[in-house]
Amino acid sequence: MRITRTKSEAGFLVLVVFVLGVLVGGLGNHVWGQRVWGMRNARPSHADFLAEFTQRLDLTPMQQEQVKSIAEETSAQWRAVYAPADRKREEIRDQSRIRLRAVMTPEQLPKFEQLMSEMDAQRVQQQNH
Question: pTM for the complete prediction?
Answer without folding.
Answer: 0.45
